[in-house]
Write a structure and sequence with these properties.
This protein is α/β, with parallel strands linked by helices and about 230 residues long. The protein is about 45% helix and about 15% strand. The strands form two sheets. The protein has a five-stranded parallel β-sheet, sandwiched between helices. It has a two-stranded antiparallel ribbon with strand order 5-6. β5 and β6 form a beta hairpin. It is globular, with a radius of gyration of 17 Å. Bound molecules: adenosine monophosphate (AMP).
């Protein structure tokens, strides 16, 4: 079946907050496809650098494998060059960025200088809330397709053939940082460095909390209504 034609509206900037395993990546892919706008995942961009063995990838690899955060400077430079590409003109979804209050302040400055269809648009910030035990289950069960990026879970969303991508047939992999030790570090760094971001955006009146424990379709529906409430 062909993918539906994207909805051609001005979406503006959309930020997905939430712990690792909250479903940001899965939802970002759906929303990006619906509106024909890019999903900008700093984790994916960094993993690509690691697999290509670039200087940046060599610098980031060990930090990522341990589950720690890469420096603000590295990720902000990466995001700046990505946002300057033409496919970001109608909007984009930031998945995994910002992760610190410093990154969020930097992003505010960048967005203040950007227009979408001739208008300045503040970000729509969606915080996916998922309880700790559920996050652990999702992270330990997560399997990813290295070729097409599709995400599975051995407990809740297994592939039809074990370890094989339903869409493209590639052998699924477990992310290097989905080990017990790295998961513990990632969840701690989320609590300490990323959770304060929810307050930052709440104070700006931008935060929209969505329960990420619902069925994926119900989550997508809430995200779409948050986006479409801001009429183009
Ligand atoms: P993710 O795929 O979003 O879970 O990111 C995987 C890893 O990439 C994280 O554990 C960090 O090491 C790094 N990373 C991704 N996004 C950021 C960010 N915004 N700031 C710092 N490090 C990041």
């Amino acid at each position: 079946m062909n993918a539906p034609t994207p909805v051609e509206r001005i979406v503006g900037p959309v930020i997905f907050l939430g712990a690792p395993g909250a479903g940001k990546g899965t939802q970002a892919k759906r929303i990006a496809e619906r509106y024909g706008i890019p999903q900008i995942s700093t984790g994916d961009i960094l993993r690509e650098h690691v697999s290509r063995g670039t200087a940046l990838g060599r610098q980031a690899k060990e930090i990522m494998d341990r589950g720690e955060l890469v420096s603000d400077k590295i990720v902000c430079d990466m995001v700046e060059s990505r946002l300057s590409q033409a496919d970001c003109d109608r909007g984009f979804i930031l998945d995994g960025f910002p992760r610190t209050v410093e990154q969020a302040k930097w992003l505010d400055g960048v967005l203040a200088a950007k227009t979408f269809g001739g208008k300045h648009l503040p970000p729509i910030v969606i915080d996916f809330e998922v309880g700790y035990n559920q996050l652990l289950k999702r992270l330990t069960g997560r399997r990813t397709c290295p070729d097409c990026g599709k995400i599975f879970n051995v407990y809740s969303q297994p592939p039809r053939v074990p370890d094989t991508c339903d869409s493209c047939g590639a052998k699924l992999i477990t992310r290097k940082d989905d080990t017990d030790e790295a998961i513990a570090v990632r969840l701690k760094s989320y609590e300490q460095q990323t959770k304060p971001l929810a307050d930052y955006y709440r104070q700006q009146g931008r935060l929209r909390v969505v329960s990420g424990e619902q069925e994926a379709d119900a989550v997508t529906k809430e995200v779409i209504s948050a986006i479409e409430e801001r009429s183009a």
